[in-house]
Structures are given as structure tokens and as C-alpha cells.
């Protein structure tokens, strides 16, 4: 029966949509002790009628507060979890039914859990991937050489994984996920805990991978810079529902998010007047000005430099939580998108 | 509750149908599983060799710790001549069979009792995204050659027993010894798999499993005549551990079984082993399915 469906799915994948979700939901039964022997069964809707498509070669940021349903979605996309309802296809494959077949075509990096062999040199983990994924020798060589060069792993190949720093290990993990030429790469917090240099290396590598190989990338992150530097498209999920799907700039608009310009003047002066920026804080000669994140900082800086005795300045980006929080609030206030408005987690006691 | 039972039953029926009509697929998956098992165990052996001194010491430790069980039996026999009507070489025969068969299962699948931990800390997910059967990956997880210690002391005691026993060895009786080891290993192995499957539902159930595996192994080291009839019935008809060594070994020794059973049951171990493997395989699939539909 479902063999017919599979064929149809593969046909659909050919014309663009590489990842397809249609009304996907995931309901967890949670048993909670309420008394000595009494238990209450609650249903928690972790993902609620989620629908979106991702085209081949897209690079998408998937963000949202903790517990919003991000990792549940990733787990369904990789076949780790089976959806409670709806239709889900990756490369035309139903992940939960054909998990091992799909595994050949996807790469997964869990930021907090390494898949490398702790006590063995890095290269040994790659050799295992080579055999486990049955990668043709020439292909393996080529991919390994490429990863080693771009992720600067050359000096690390013979070092036991336990001796690697966090940044080195993350680079090692990313390489391990790419040796079998996956068509899509899922990254869960790929830059968490990394220093600035490591972050930059990882981002540059991912950008190249996407541009040169056309690998589809879906990443979850708490780092807005990851999104800014990598993703043309952002999806925001909250309470298991898709709240926003579009360009990052649009996210700033919806949320009216603001960047902050920190200005050091020669001496203490009354608050600077330079609309649309407004002064939010003054501390001696230092002033903080908030201005819309969608606009450019250049004209504002030029104007202040021309009119005030400027010593130094810096621009601060809004953090992702602030942007999302503002966006969710503004969607709730306007009320014209009632169906998408945030609401408390839909829990329902059934017995 | 009724709902769950029904769902499980439905899943089982579906499994059976699936298995019946995908025989070739099952064969392919088994081969894939064995291949993955070989690849992963090779990695663990290399990891262990990285700490050579520790490897030698833990293997010796494993040998000594398990041999202490037999020392206890020797101490007993320094006070009495028979135990439940059995002399020392006969008890050693039972001990050697039980210990070696269990050692085989422990070597191959012993790490499966750590599954609960992997479920709890979420690292099972990293195995689920690989193109290899999860059962093989979990079975090979933390494969430890030091467990050879248990097998070697078991085989040592068995060797002593065979040398010391005064038996009229027919070809059939000779063939039954390796057959008992293999079937016994498979029966214990399926207890490991079923126990691991149960850990999908209850992650801290490894102690319950231990009482069946390690406990069962110790039980079988002694003659059945010293245990209560109810217990003997339990390990014959409910959890068929009696087929590991008691039933076939008593035939070899020419002793009557405490329960009234036909003679042919002595040759049933391979069949029982196949049945146990099928059931535990089913339990594993139900367990894995429940994990994949409920999450950690």
C-alpha cells in the first residue's frame, strides 16, 4: 500500500520541494503522578499542524524559544520520531518508515553530542563512516581531503578525540557528517560554546558547502549572527506552530527590533537628538541610542559625527531572543492573524 | 491501558505479517546488522587496546571474579560429598555449561543493559540517524573483550568436568555439548535483548534484567534437585532457562529430571533458542517503535 505512496513522493520531490511538511503534528502522552497511585495522562502537543517546504539548496535558520518544538521537528525529519499526524517527506522518503534508507542521504550534527570516537584518533572515526556508509573510495578521499583542508583538520587527524578542544571537535563532527555527500545537513546549535575564530571558520565552511555543493542546510541556533551570515530564510516556531517564515530583515520589521548605537562623546552633553534614533540611556559622556534594525547605521553615524564631538562608537545587534520575543508580542497585539497568535501550550487532560 | 495492549497487539500482528512477506528483506537486514556489529566492535577493541595495561587487568579481574563462583562450590564440596545427590564433577559439568553459555551471550550482547542510559541522556538518537540496524549498534556498543575472562573460566571448569566424569560418551552425547553452548548462549542472549527492549519503557530496569541474566546463570550452576518444584517449573515453562543446560545435561549425565517430562525435551534446546530469539526480536521492535513514537 505505502509502496505506491513512496513512488508518488519521489516524483513530487523532483520538482523543487526537497523537504515537505503538511499538517505535521506530534503529540506526546505525558504521565504525571498526582497521588500515591493516581496518575493523570496529559497530552502535550509539541508540534501542531506544521506545514512548510524547503527547496533543494536552500539554507534555512530554524529558531524559537526553548521547548518550542525545534528539536522535535528535527527528530521527525531525521526519522528518529514518528509524527502523530500529517504528511512528511524528505527527498521523497517518509523518514519514520525508511529511516535507514534516508540515513544515507542526510547528515546530522548534534551540537552537544559528539558522534566521534572518544579514545581513538579522529581519522579512525572517519574510516568507520567510510565503511558504514559504503562510500566509494575515491569519493571518500576527495571529501575527506576537502573537509580537512577547509576545516583545518590536517594536524588533528591523528589526535585522540578526547584531546580536542570544543571548536576542533565541532569541526571534526561536521566533517564526519559530510563524508557521504548528504543532500541535506541538519545542524543543531553548530556554534554553541565556540570562540569567535572557530565560529567564523564553521560559518565560512557552511557557506561554501551550500554555494558549491548545493547542500540543503537546516540549522537551529541561538546565535543571531549564524542566521545573519548564513541563512536567506528564517523560520520561527513557538508552541509547535510556525510563527514566521521569510527573510531575516522581515523578521526585524515584524518585531520592530532595534539595534543600539553606543556613542562616546568628548564630554557630558544633553541627550543627542537624531530621529528616528532615540536616546535610551546616558552615563557621563557615553550615550546609548536605539534605532530600527531594518535601517542602516551609516547615515545616523555620519550625522552624529558632524554635529557632536565624537570620540568612539560601536553598534550592538539585538539578540535573537529579544527579536523573537518582540515579534511574538507584536503578532499577539495586532490580533489580525488570530490563527497564528501565540497561545499557551495546548495541554489537555484526558483522564 | 486496554488501548495500549490493543495497540501493541496490532503492532505485533503487523510485524508478523511484515516478517512473513519480507523474508528476503529480513535476511538483508540481518546481514547489514552483522556487518555493522563487526565494524563497531572493531572500533571498541581498538579503543580498549589504547589502554593496554587496563585491558589486561580488567580481563584478569573478570576471570577471577567469575571463578570465585566455582571456588564457592569447591568449598561446599570440601564439607559434603554430594549436593542434591550430585557429585562434584557433575555439578562442575552444569556449572561449566551455564557459565560458558552465559559468557558467550554476555560477550556478544552484554552491553545492551546500558540502553536505558542512552535513552535517558538522548545519545540513542545519534545511533538512529545511521544507516544500520539499531539493534546491532546497541549490541556492539561498548563491546568489551575482557568478558572473555568469564568464558575462559567456564570452559576451564567444563574441561575439568568432562575429564573427571565417568560417562559412556556416544557421538550424540559428544555433539550435545557444543549444541548446548550455542543454544544456551542464544537463550541468554534473547533475555538480554528482551531486557533491553523493556528499558525503552522503564529506563532504570537494568537491575530487573540482571536478576534474570546473572541470577539465572547462577541458578543453573546448581543441580535442579536442590530447588523447589515451583521454581524448576518456572524456569522450564515460563522463562525457559532450563533448556540452557539442565534438561540436555541431565540426559548426558543419565539423571532423571525432577519434573515428569518426555526424553525428547533434552534435544529441544535449539528449537527453544530459535523461539526465544524470535520473541525477543519482536519485543525489541515493539520497544523501539514505542521510543520512536513517544520520544525520550
UniProtKB/TrEMBL annotation, chain A:
What's the protein called, per UniProt? ABC transporter ATP-binding protein
Pfam families under this entry?
ABC_tran
What is the protein's major site of localization? membrane
Fetch the CDD domains from UniProt: ABC_NatA_like (cd03267)
Question: Which SMART domains does the record associate with it?
Answer: AAA
Q: Which domain of life is it from?
A: Bacteria
Query: Which InterPro entries does the annotation name?
Result: AAA+_ATPase, ABC_transporter-like_ATP-bd, ABC_transporter_ATP-binding, P-loop_NTPase
One GO molecular function term of this record is: ATP binding
Amino acid at each position: 500500500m505505502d509502496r505506491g505512496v513512496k513512488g508518488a513522493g519521489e516524483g513530487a520531490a523532483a520538482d523543487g520541494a526537497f523537504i515537505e511538511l503538511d499538517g505535521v503534528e506530534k503529540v506526546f502522552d505525558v504521565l504525571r503522578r498526582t497521588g500515591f497511585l493516581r496518575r493523570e495522562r496529559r497530552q502535550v502537543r509539541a508540534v501542531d499542524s506544521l506545514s512548510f517546504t524547503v527547496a533543494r539548496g536552500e539554507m534555512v535558520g530554524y529558531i524559537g524559544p526553548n521547548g518550542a518544538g525545534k528539536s522535535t521537528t528535527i527528530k521527525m525529519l531525521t526519522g528518529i520520531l514518528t509524527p502523530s499526524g500529517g504528511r512528511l517527506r524528505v527527498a521523497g522518503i517518509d523518514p519514520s518508515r525508511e529511516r535507514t534508507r534516508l540515513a544515507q542521504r542526510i547528515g546530522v550534527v548534534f551540537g552537544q553530542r559528539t558522534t566521534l570516537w572518544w579514545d581513538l584518533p579522529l581519522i579512525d572515526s572517519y574510516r568507520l563512516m567510510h565503511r558504514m556508509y559504503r562510500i566509494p573510495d575515491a569519493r571518500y578521499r576527495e571529501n575527506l581531503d576537502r573537509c580537512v583542508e577547509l576545516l583545518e583538520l590536517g594536524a588533528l587527524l591523528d589526535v585522540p578525540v578526547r584531546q580536542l578542544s570544543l571548536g576542533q571537535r565541532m569541526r571534526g563532527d561536521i566533517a564526519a557528517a559530510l563524508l557521504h555527500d548528504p543532500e541535506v545537513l541538519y545542524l543543531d546549535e553548530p556554534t554553541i560554546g565556540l570562540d569567535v575564530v572557530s565560529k567564523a571558520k564553521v560559518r565560512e565552511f557552511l557557506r561554501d558547502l551550500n554555494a558549491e555543493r548545493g547542500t540543503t542546510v537546516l540549522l537551529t541556533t541561538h546565535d543571531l549572527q549564524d542566521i545573519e551570515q548564513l541563512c536567506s530564510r528564517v523560520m520561527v516556531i513557538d508552541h509547535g506552530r510556525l510563527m514566521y517564515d521569510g527573510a531575516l530583515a522581515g523578521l526585524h520589521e515584524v518585531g520592530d527590533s532595534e539595534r543600539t548605537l553606543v556613542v562616546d562623546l568628548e564630554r557630558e552633553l544633553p541627550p543627542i537628538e537624531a530621529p528616528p534614533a532615540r536616546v535610551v540611556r546616558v552615563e557621563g559622556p557615553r550615550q546609548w541610542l536605539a534605532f530600527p534594525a531594518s535601517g542602516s547605521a551609516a547615515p545616523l553615524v555620519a550625522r552624529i559625527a558632524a554635529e557632536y564631538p565624537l570620540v568612539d562608537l560601536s553598534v550592538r545587534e539585538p539578540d535573537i531572543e529579544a527579536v523573537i520575543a518582540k515579534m511574538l508580542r507584536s503578532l499577539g497585539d495586532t490580533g489580525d492573524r488570530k490563527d497564528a497568535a501565540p497561545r499557551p501550550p495546548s495541554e489537555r487532560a484526558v483522564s | 491501558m486496554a488501548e495500549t495492549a490493543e495497540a501493541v497487539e496490532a503492532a505485533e500482528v503487523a510485524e508478523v505479517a511484515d516478517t512473513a512477506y519480507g523474508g528476503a528483506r529480513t535476511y538483508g537486514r540481518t546481514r547489514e546488522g552483522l556487518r555493522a556489529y563487526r565494524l563497531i566492535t572493531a572500533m571498541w577493541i581498538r579503543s580498549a587496546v589504547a589502554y593496554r595495561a587496563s585491558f589486561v587487568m580488567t580481563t584478569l579481574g573478570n576471570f577471577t571474579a567469575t571463578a570465585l563462583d566455582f571456588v564457592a562450590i569447591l568449598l561446599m564440596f570440601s564439607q559434603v560429598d554430594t549436593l542434591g545427590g550430585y557429585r562434584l564433577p557433575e555439578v562442575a559439568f552444569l556449572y561449566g555449561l551455564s557459565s560458558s553459555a552465559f559468557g558467550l551471550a554476555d560477550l556478544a550482547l552484554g552491553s545492551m543493559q546500558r540502553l536505558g542510559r542512552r535513552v535517558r541522556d538522548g545519545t540513542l538518537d545519534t545511533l538512529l540517524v545511521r544507516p544500520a540496524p539499531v539493534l546491532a549498534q546497541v549490541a556492539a556498543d561498548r563491546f568489551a573483550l575482557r568478558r572473555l575472562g568469564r568464558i575462559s573460566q567456564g570452559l576451564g571448569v567444563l574441561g575439568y568436568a568432562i575429564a573427571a566424569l565417568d560417562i559412556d560418551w556416544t557421538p550424540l552425547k559428544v555433539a550435545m555439548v557444543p549444541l548446548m553452548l550455542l543454544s544456551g548462549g542464544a537463550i541468554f542472549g534473547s533475555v538480554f535483548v528482551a531486557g533491553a527492549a523493556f528499558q525503552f519503557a522503564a529506563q532504570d530496569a537494568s537491575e530487573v534484567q540482571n536478576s534474570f541474566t546473572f541470577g539465572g546463570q547462577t541458578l543453573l550452576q546448581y543441580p535442579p534437585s536442590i530447588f523447589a518444584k515451583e521454581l524448576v517449573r518456572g524456569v522450564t515453562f515460563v522463562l525457559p532457562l532450563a533448556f540452557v543446560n539442565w534438561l540436555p545435561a541431565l540426559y548426558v549425565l543419565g539423571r532423571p529430571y525432577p519434573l515428569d517430562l518426555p526424553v525428547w525435551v533434552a534435544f529441544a534446546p535449539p528449537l527453544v533458542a530459535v523461539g526465544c530469539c524470535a520473541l525477543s526480536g519482536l519485543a525489541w521492535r515493539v520497544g523501539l517503535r514505542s521510543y520512536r513514537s513517544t520520544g525520550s
